[in-house]
Structures are given as structure tokens and as C-alpha cells.
Amino acid sequence: MKTRRHVVGLHAVEAALQHGPERIVSAWIDAARTDDRLARLIKGLQALGLKPQRVNKARLDILAEGQSHQGVVLEVIMPGELGENELRSALETTGTLPLFLVLDHLQDPHNFGACLRTADAAGVQGVVLTKDQSVGITPVVAKVASGAAETMPVYRVTNLARALSWLKSAGIWVAGAAGEAERTIYEADLRLPLALVMGAEGKGLRRLTKECCDFLVSIPMLGQVESLNVSVATGVLLYEVVRQRRTLTSHHSSEVFPE
Q1: Taking the mean position of all CA atoms in its chain, how far away is CA 19?
Q2: Which is it for strands 99-103 and 215-217: parallel, antiparallel or unpaired?
Q3: Whether 219 contacts 233, CB under 8 Å
Q4: What is the DSSP letter of 21?
């Protein structure tokens, strides 16, 4: 089901204008601001046939629900989250080298938004997360995602283990990120149909989720801290996949698969 949400802040509003202008319903602008950047946004909104409402900062503060709005708030129609049937349908048309991101009980909206933004940049085809104990697409998520919340397919599943089995049945290898894994991401061959599974903040992957993975990988930690923030770790892992895939040639064959 599609919902209406507020998008706040200059960068997020610019992303909405660029990537989903047809979803914009209403706009509110700080009546006291007259700078060029805001003027360009107003011009873009007017080109869509919208008439931004000029209001005071107090009204914007209420609309933004405590977020930093930088003088502009939009109301947009957000795409509805997808379910298990849509995931199974998507797996039938993934192409030759799919890449999915799976989030195991991720709860922090800032981390989720950052993961969506990185997933979009890295060419991920869809993000899978659980219905229970996982964050939804909130206004905070949408702002941090900077447009990716409007474009990235998000599949919410009841049973993650079952969803991972569907991925495997579609010929996709499931790689879990775990600090205790002996093989690092730089030692693993990631040039294959892949679903990367990330654990929750501070907890990592659940035991059952680990058991569902084909193999586990870790990020080398050379300093004093034991782990990275989950959204940072997601970026490191996804871009190692991107780096390795860029080395693929037309002569690459089945030897890419892990032992």
C-alpha cells in the first residue's frame, strides 16, 4: 500500500525532484528565505504545476517533526513496500548477475536509509528485510536515503530463512557478513549471483541466518574497535562486490564460484 510521507531538507527535496517528481503532492517553503538554491527548487516545483505554500519556520518545524528541514518540506507519495510474492516474481527475472542486500532485523532508521542509498549506488536489485523487528520506510529513512527510498525495491518477508532458500533456488549465492568469519571479503570471490546478508546493530547475524548462508565473510579490523557501523560495513562489502565484478571478462566461467 502506498503512503504519503514528508520529505525534508534541501538535498532530499532535490533528489525527489530528480528521481520522483510525479510523486510530489504538496510543498511548503520558508517564507523568510530568498536564497538562490531555494529559488531553484521553487522553480522546479512550479514547473510541475505545484504552488509551494510559503509558511513560517514554526509551521515547517511541525511538518518536519523535529528534523532539520532547511526551509523546505514536501509531501510525497511513497511507493509501497513489496512482499514475498513480489520477491519470488523478481527472482524469475534477475538477469545473469543479480545482487541483493538482505538486512537481518535492522532497526535504526539512519542505518537503513544509508544502506538504501549505498545499495542504489552499488546497483543492488532489491533489499530484503523481515516484517518483525525491522524498521520501515520512515521520514528519517527517506531523508537519509536521499532518493533511494523512492527507487529501491524493498521486499518485506515473514520468514527470512525461507526467503534465503528462494534466493538459493534462483541460483543466487548467499554470503553472510560475520566478524568471526575466517575468510575476508578480499579473499572471497564475489563475482557471482549474490545476496549479501547483514546483521542487526550490535548483534550481527542471528544463528539461524548464519546457518542459511552459503559462506561467511569478514572485514579486516586493524585497529582497536571490534566492528564497523552496519551501514558503513554494508558500503565496504557492496563496493568490494562492485570492484570484483568490474574485473569480469567475457571469458570468465564457473571457476568464480566459491569452494
Answers
A1: 15
A2: unpaired
A3: yes
A4: G
Report how far residue 64's alpha carbon sits from residue 28's, in angstroms, rounded to the nearest whole number.
10
* pLDDT score recorded for residue 235: 95
- Running along the chain, 259 residues long, what does each successive block of 10 average in pLDDT? 75 80 88 87 90 91 84 81 90 88 92 93 94 80 79 91 95 93 92 93 86 94 80 95 79 48
The predicted pLDDT at position 1 comes to 52
Could you tell me how far CA 64 lies from the centroid of its own chain? 22
| Domains in the chain, CATH or no CATH each | 3-78 (3.30.1330.30), 84-256 (3.40.1280.10)
Q: What is the pTM of this model?
A: 0.75
Q: Which of 194, 41, 50 is nearest to 122 (CA)?
A: 194
Say if residues 196 and 177 touch (Cβ distance below 8 Å): yes
- Phi then psi dihedrals of residue 115, to 5 deg: -65, -40
**Burial degree of 27 (CB within 10 A; 0-12, 13-18, 19+):** buried
Using alpha carbons, list the distances in angstroms from residue 128 to 35, 120, 123, 158, 219.
40, 13, 15, 11, 22
Residue 39 is classified by DSSP as H
Q: Where are the beta strands (DSSP E) in 173-226?
A: 173-177, 194-198, 215-217
Distance CA(56)–CA(48), nearest Å, equals 23
Count other Cβ atoms within 10 Å, centred on residue 97.
16
